[in-house]
Amino acid sequence: MPELAPLLYCHSVIATLFAIVLLLQGRAVIVVEVTRPTPATTPQQLGVLAKQAIACGADALCVRLDTEDTPEGLKDLFAVVQAARGVPVLARDWIIHPMQLVEAKEAGAAGVLGVIGQVNGRGTAVMSSFAAAIGLDAPVEVVNAREMNGLSRAGVVFYGVNLSVGLSIAVPGFATDMAHGLLGGMPFGTISLVGVKDVEQARKARLSGADAILVKKEMIEAAAAEGKDLRTLLDQVQYVTCGDD
What we know:
The chain is an alpha/beta fold. It has helices at 4-9, 12-24, 43-55, 73-84, 98-106, 122-133, 145-153, 174-184, 199-207, 217-225, 230-240, and strands at residues 29-34, 60-64, 89-92, 111-113, 115-116, 140-141, 158-161, 191-196, 212-215. A 9-stranded parallel beta sheet has the order 4-3-2-1-9-8-7-6-5. Helix 7 (145-153) links the parallel strand 6 and strand 7 (158-161).
């Protein structure tokens, strides 16, 4: 669990949320992806789904902007922000240009997912700094310790694991072991958001030190296929990520 000072180093909305949930409630922050069930779903209908996710226990929301997920990414983001009424909303996309950050900010996002770590960390650190300068939190996604150490020297304090890149090598337990190693090796005081595909991964991520859990679209769909509604799923995630034991 991070100290309060590094949390306040991040921008206000996300920092306040992490401080309340982590430090006062003693559990992981739960971020839930809201996506169009079908291409015909409208931004307004997505806003209704966002309200339902909040009612079911989401601490924050994440909206996918990639063209593979929606033909109207920024409209979806704006609709969810309006529906969320103060609950932080993150935009998820492949972030390759500062203009994407500006557009997400203008649509009302509190942060962005999709800033991918590079071994030298130079371009990534600049993008992260620019996001902070315009009032966005932007966890940088890393897949190995070398990236993380380089970014740490550049001043990055908020990291993502298994968000967009995915630790998906087909070796049993590989993704979980890699995430555990990255979380255990994070510099003191940094903050982490970990994407998970099932409740057991959420439990292991929290035990390894994850501060926040991203409940991905695929996890929600798999739970629904088992007859499990979103409230039940989030109740389980909250239960297994409450505390450090």
